[in-house]
Hints:
The protein is 38% helix and 18% strand. The chain is of the alpha/beta class.
Amino acid sequence: MAQIGNPAKQSLSDRVAAFQLGHKALTFVAECRCRIFDWRHHIRTCGDASLAALTVRSKNAEHGAAYQPTHPKFVFELLGSLKIDYRDYVFVDLGSGKGRTLFVAAEFPFQKIIGVEFAEELHQIALRNARHYRSSTQACMNIECLHLDAAEFVIPTIPTVLFLFNPFRPPVLISVLRTLDKSLRTSPRDVFLIYVGAFHGHLIEHETRMRQVGQGPHHKMYRFTPA
């Protein structure tokens, strides 16, 4: 006589299997969309990269995180939600990797776009991508890629949109935030900070005068506006 298993266990097993299958399908679709983005714009930004396999000449190398590109549609929607006159703002990506976020930002008329990356190989790829990037709807042509440790970057003293995709651990993040707060004290201006993968988001309000103004499943957004 056939054995009948526990229906509750079977149901849970089926749900787990369905979830795993759905997750794999979504990951596959996202990867395809990212590769289409690269193909369409004549660039190469796909693929993760471990810092252990890269050349990093910085005392902060141990505090860096692996490179993982952001999804173009996700970044486009974030930037499109800002409700600002982009022409008055500079966009800065700290830990810009191969430059994908810079090219999505270029679809908006920012005054300037800056990528800061301390891994030599990723920086060189970003430079090559910047030379080859093509888009009929590109709104900002002023893109600069800097080979630099984020802790040494001088934050522009004009209205700024800062972007971080969990690029470094607290020792570097705290240094960057303290530099930012000092800059806000000496040169008050409107500054947004978009923090994707905000594992250390509590440090933003602790170390700066910025306050959280929004969030989603994968990000938190902070802003400082002069009184």
